[in-house]
Amino acid sequence: MNAIDVRNVSIDLGSGAAKRRILGDVTFSVKPGESFGLVGESGSGKSTILRCIARLLTLWDGAIEMEGTSIKDMPFADYCRMVQMVFQDPYGSLHPRQSIRTALQEPLRIHRMDRQLERMERALTDVGLDPAFLARYPHELSGGQRQRVAIARALILEPRILLLDEPTSALDVSVQAEVLNLLADLRTRRNLTYLFVSHDLAVIDHMCERLAVMQHGRVVEIMDRAVLSTGKANDPYARELIEASLAYDQAV
Amino acid sequence: MTTKSIDIGTAAMTASSAKTYTAWSRLLRVLKDLLANPSSGFGLVVIAILLVTALVAPWIAPYEPNMINLAKALQPPSTAHLFGTDELGRDVLSRIIHGSRISLTIITIVSVIVGPLGLLVGTTAGYFGGWYDTVMMRITDIFLSFPSLILSLAFVAALGASLENAIIAIGLTAWPPIARLARAETLTFRNADYISASRMQGASKLRIIIKSIMPMCLPSVLVRVTLSMATVILTAAGLGFLGLGAQPPLPEWGAMIATGRRYMLDNWWLVAFPGGAILLVSLAFNLLGDGLRDALDPKQGH
């Protein structure tokens, strides 16, 4: 049984002559414990498909199954305990007027979980922050610290699957490495499944075992990580993307 | 914040400065900001004086507000009667002091009705959208398309002339601008990531509106309520002046002007002092509202 199964998911906007296809027949699956990457240029639909899986978008056709159950049939509370998401911009994903304590306690209150203080403190130490941060507000933290809090908030419900929407692209390079190492470390410790969206092939190479390349709302190729170093992709666009990335790395 | 190399799990980042950031310290800072600015400081001081006056009115008023003494009718301001006396020999100063209680009652009740009502209508309309938004906003439009005094007049005429009905009427006319404002604010961040994050944690719509959206709208709504207090005072005075608000012998400022109007040409103090009180208090609320807008603006870099 796969952790995530996405089959023929498509989104059409408008009707008649003005009908535009935003996503077309996206199909891929992610095994339990695997880290799966979605790459593509801006506007290729990678974040859109992630938002469909996150149930933030509901107007799509096709089938999305998590651990064998269609997400449309799953009670939302169960879904929240199974899947959580880390957003791209740590400056926008934490409520500016809520302390870290409130941000972490809300999900615990909603799901009526026990030992709340203990869980909150553990969530912070797990992401490398001192429990004293509970009293802080987001504007008192740096970007990297905010993203750590966002990860702590996503993990506090102990989900098995984590959706990551370019979690490091808003951070500067040194902090990026820290957050990526933290994510890799958390995955091995908690046996999490990652669906990792990024436009940075180096990040995907570091984080994921398999990846799907997207262009114009379609998956053009699904490949193993090994292909990234050889550049032997089948699809011309995927090959071009990998070559460009390799050339860029050499230039830097 | 000290930056050190992080070895996850062993060396946890420490919260360096033990800065307490409580609601209390925020309130103190806002008050400090308000007093630092001369105009908003003036507004705050006048409103503080109004509050104290209303609180201790029976002890500081030199006479009973309704004590009639026809032998001393229509006396100009003197040391015995600082603001003079009216046509029934009642002390104008005492009446103004007691009238502050009525004005404050009106302001308090109206803001208690109007703030939450406007906030609720605006945030739900903005967050839910769709037909609910359309219906609520068209109702708001209808209320907004009447001048507030005319609409209050209609309500009071329907309900009957009394202070309570005037308060209800003013409350019914003052919420639409606040609902509009709250809706506009809600629209700007209804698709923000922190709302999405809250949804993914399983928060119900009501929980998101109350816990995530309302706190974001609150500062601007507070400013707007404060600014509309000036209008509320003027509308209340207007209704009182037209005889549809507080009824005699209640010492409401607008009603005092209405009765003083007949003697105005020869006895200016009957109208000047209550008028001055209305002017001062509505000016104070306007200045305070402007000051609050600056002090509560999150973009001012606190």
Give a concise summary.
The complex is a heterodimer of chains A (252) and B (302). Chain A has 252 residues and is α/β, with parallel strands linked by helices.
Q: Kindly state the percentage of residues in helix of chain A.
A: 25-40%
Order of SSEs of chain A: EEEHEEHEHHHEHEHEEHH
Helix and strand succession of chain B? HHHHHHHHHHH
CATH class of chain B: Mainly Alpha
User: How confident overall, as mean pLDDT of chain A?
Assistant: 89
Name given to the CATH architecture of chain B: Orthogonal Bundle
CATH architectural label of chain A: 3-Layer(aba) Sandwich
Shape of chain B: elongated
Ends apart, CA distance between termini of chain B = 17 Å
**Oligomer state of the chains in this structure:** heterodimer
What is the strand content of chain A? 15-25%
- Superfamily at the CATH H level of chain A? P-loop containing nucleotide triphosphate hydrolases
Describe the fold and architecture:
By secondary structure, chain A is α/β, with parallel strands linked by helices. Chain A has one domain (4-251): P-loop containing nucleotide triphosphate hydrolases (Rossmann fold). Chain A has helices at residues 46-53, 76-82, 100-110, 116-126, 143-155, 173-190, 201-207, 226-230, 236-251; strands at 4-13, 20-30, 35-39, 61-66, 69-70, 83-86, 161-165, 193-197, 210-215, 218-224. In chain A, a hairpin with a 6-residue loop joins β1 and β2. In chain A, α4 crosses α5 (143-155). Chain A is globular. The mean pLDDT of chain A is 89. Chain B is mainly α and 302 residues long. Chain B has one domain (45-65, 84-300): MetI-like fold. Chain B has eleven helices and no strands. Residues 1-19 of chain B have low confidence and may be disordered. The A-B interface holds A 54-56, 76-77, 79-80, 83-85, 87-89, 92-99, 106-107, 110-111, 124-130, 132-133, 135-137, 140-142, 145, 148, 150, 153, 157, 178, 181-182, 185 and B 1, 6, 8-9, 11-15, 18-21, 192-194, 196-203, 207, 211-212, 215-216, 298.
